[in-house]
Amino acid sequence: MDQTRESLLCRFIVNLDQEEKKPDRLFFHLQNAYWYYLDFLNPEDKMSQTEFYSWLLNPLSEYNEIRGNLKHYLKQFKQYQKHIPLYGAILLNETLDCVLLVMNYNQTVYSFPKGKVNKNESGVECAIREVWEEVGYDISKKISEKDYLEFVCEDTGQPQRMYIICGVSEDHKFTTSTRYEIGSIQWVQIKDIQRGDSAYDCKNIFSTKNNQRKAKSKTQIRQLNQI
To answer: Which residues are CB-neighbours of 104 under 8 A, at least 6 positions away?
Structure first.
């Protein structure tokens, strides 16, 4: 385990600059280390994220304050995360009657593939990266900076921008590269979402009124009003 920890520290922590060592930024790197550890090094480990962070930082005395007050700093980090925009995509099939959704690991609600923007990353770059990581589909040739919906999460107040991608083949083999983040990938009929099923957190997106208010181009309004 000591060799594993040393490898993780070298890969994710020890070379951080002073700005990235600040608690709010540090926890992004700790998260990445945790997912990498589960995905590639020890999938069977049952350590919680909090336990993992404490274990990983243990050899580094400069982080003793954070290790000793992990609950406090984690609470601060969760608040900080709410202000970071999310970018992703609304992936529609060729007949515009189904949308591709993902369910996070150990959760029960489907949503669009999306994630937090990295430092110095554009919204389009973030959406391309997140969709590729979560479902294994390259939207780089289909995405347009002008075609998106923008809204705020009702629960957290977190800003979100979802780029509209039409004409995705249902025959594509979707696979996630984040095995312990995404638990399920599924095509869902939009009419099922519109019925208000609590299994989908995007039911308010697929309504004419909301589309016209949130869409950023006339093309989008035409596309979404066909649904």
So the answer is: 111, 181, 182, 183
Q: Give the domain 2-81 fold.
A: Arc Repressor Mutant, subunit A (1.10.10)
The helix or strand, by DSSP H or E, that contains position 165, with its residue range, turns out to be: strand 159-168
Superfamily of domain 86-225: Nucleoside Triphosphate Pyrophosphohydrolase (3.90.79.10)
Q: How many residues does the chain have?
A: 227
The Cα-based distances of 61 to 31, 72, 160, 206 in angstroms read 20, 18, 37, 51
What is the spatial distance between Cα 223 and Cα 227, in angstroms, rounded to a whole number? 7
pLDDT value of residue 211: 47
Percentage of residues in the chain with pLDDT exceeding 70?
A: 91
Locate all alpha helices (DSSP H) within the chain, ordered by sequence: 2-12, 23-36, 49-57, 64-68, 70-81, 123-135, 190-194, 208-214, 218-225
Beta-carbon contacts of 178 under 8 Å, excluding residues fewer than 6 positions away, are 35, 39, 133, 134
- With both helix axes pointing from N to C terminus, report the angle between 23-36 and 70-81 in degrees, rounded to the nearest 10: 90
Contact present, 163 and 127 (Cβ < 8 Å): yes
pLDDT, tens digit, for every residue of 11-21? 999 999 999 99
Taking the C-alpha atoms of residue 132 and residue 165, their distance in angstroms, rounded to an integer, is 13
CA 181, CA 2: separation in Å to the nearest integer?
25
For the chain, what are the domain ranges? 2-81, 86-225
Percentage of the chain lying above the pLDDT 90 cut: 69
- In tens, the pLDDT along 145-159 reads 999 999 888 777 889
